[in-house]
Design goal:
The chain is mainly β. It has two helices and 23 strands. It has helices at about 1-25, 335-360; strands at about 30-35, 40-45, 55, 60, 65-70, 70-75, 85-90, 95-105, 110-115, 125-130, 140-145, 150, 155, 160-165, 175-185, 185-195, 205-215, 215-225, 240-245, 255-260, 265, 275-285, 295-300. The strands form six sheets. It has a five-stranded mixed sheet, with helices on one face. A four-stranded antiparallel sheet has the order 9-10-14-13, with no helix packed on it. A four-stranded antiparallel sheet has the order 12-11-15-16, with no helix packed on it. It is elongated. GO terms for molecular function: cytokine receptor activity. It comes from Dicentrarchus labrax. Keywords: Glycoprotein, Immunoglobulin domain, Membrane, Repeat, Signal, Transmembrane, Transmembrane helix. InterPro entries: FN3_dom, FN3_IL27B_N, FN3_sf, Hematopoietin_rcpt_L_F3_CS, Ig-like_dom, Ig-like_dom_sf, Ig-like_fold, Ig_sub2.
Amino acid sequence: MANLVTSLCCVVLAAVVVAYAQRRSQLVARNQYERMSSDVTMQCGSLDNDASVSWKVNGTDVKAQHHLEGPRLMLTGVDLSHNGLYSCFQNPHGERRDTIFLHIGIPPREPTVTCRSNTYPKGFYCSWHQLHPTYIPTTFEVDVQHNQRSLEVQKDPDHKNRCRVRFPEVFSSFPYKVNVTAVNALGKASTTISFEESSIVKPDPPERVTATPIRFNARRLEVSWHSPATWPDIDNFPLKYFLRYRPLIREQWQHVELSDSTSHTITDAYAGKEYIIQVAAKDTEIGTWSDWSVAVHATPWIEDPLPITSTTEVDFPTETKTSPIPSSNAPQKAEPPVGRAARLLTFFSPLLLGMLLLFMW
């Protein structure tokens, strides 16, 4: 009796588990990937062919061109507008039986692959990209071969479509072979390239480029720069440099190639004209030139103009000031006593002379 109860309990538990799993599968959306412009059929769970169902996309009725065949929804000539969450409901009670996330895309094409060493002789990196979008998640598998053995590939943490590889040896005569395969739910495509070690060496541009005028030299500019920080061993693997400069008023560049110096004096600048200056770098023996550095602008020294001074003295006429005529109401200044006596003497002198002549008679 105990064994029978135990068996019944197990059967009931198994039925509950199956029902829960079915119910959960109905609630959790499954992904379905289809090619652009193709005809698509979506099956509503495991319902029989004679089941009657209705469909919704993103919670609303399906409005795109379609038709139903039992539990199947058929779409014709799909494009990106058909992407969405499709749910089917069994009639007549409207119980949801399945949920499908439809993704429309295209298979990947052969990726474009390039490799470069800006940290020679430590290693190199390879990068890749798709010329055309796939519209669905696409991953890349990378394999690097050298001298009949696979090399360790490290994914770049900062760039999704880039990996780094260490040189197993320096000055190797064996070529490197890099294969990159693009993979998504609709297909895969791969590209393989081969190269010699010396052909991919390309430093980063020089850094901290400066250009300053030289005092009292109206046609000179002092240019200096630093080797790229990514170049790991400047002593054993020196760089040479290529300087170009031009005035803003002209389109033609002037060029100077330098050995391992990180400075140069321009001696043929146009006086008073603004210049644009850039520098590139290259390993002294192998590889190719870097890209140009960030452009800097500078103008040769310009002499300060002297202040304007007069060398001829000009005599200006002395200004004559006239006293204003006092008004009749203004108080008059008292005259000194001597002046009054002189005027009285002048008035009475004829009278006195006449009296003197009379007495003489």
